[in-house]
Amino acid sequence: MTFIDLSGAGTLAGAPHGGTSAVGSPHLRGYLAEPSGTGPFPAVLMIHEAFGLNDIARRQADRLAAAGYLTLAVDLFSDGGPRRCLVATMRSLLSGSGKAFADLAAARDWLEESGRTNGKIGVIGFCMGGGFALLIAKDGFDAAAVNYGRLPKNPEEALLGACPVVGNFGKADRSLPGAAARLETALDKLGIEHDIKEFDGAGHAFMNDAEEGPRVLRPLFRVMGVKPDPEAAAEAWQRIEDHFARHLKA
Hints:
By secondary structure, this protein is an alpha/beta fold. Helix content is 38%, strand content 19%. The longest helix has 20 residues, at 230-249. The protein is globular, with a radius of gyration of 17 Å.
């Protein structure tokens, strides 16, 4: 498990999401979690939460590697960290275009060109990353896992042509009321294979294995229901592993 330089792949990522060229991060990097053995492996592009590529995110990548996936967790805050990059990255998510999508395209290209995959690549995202995973699910991936991710303004338009999706949401997540049902409705209408579940009692970020964010804000997060839920997380991870095994390992 190590950090790798993706800048060679990400300076200009051709035609990323939406078919429009965009300049990527000049110092793009990612955390590569590798399965044991020689491969080739099914691959997964992982997209972190709004707090960045922190210890929690790296452990999530390690977990996927232990399940047999060559996992690249791209750092969307490579050029300055969360404080400098979060606002621009969120704007990119809301607009559906910009540098973040170029970075994601570069990371996917790196996996594809690594010579270590079996030809199958999935994408997984959490929170902010879940929103990005939804938007790029139609960009050449074979399976997507969306965990409490923000839905696009027009889901039916944005998800047209998406790969099979597994989604995990918390019913007590005050930031995404009704998101699971709206996503399921959109995927039903589009005829896209999917498995969406809303977990009773679970809030936002329930799949994290520890609290995160500034310590001074953690009591507020708890009140808002933003906290780990080990029981719900265990089931959510099993659903993801089953989904990826079906579409990436077969």
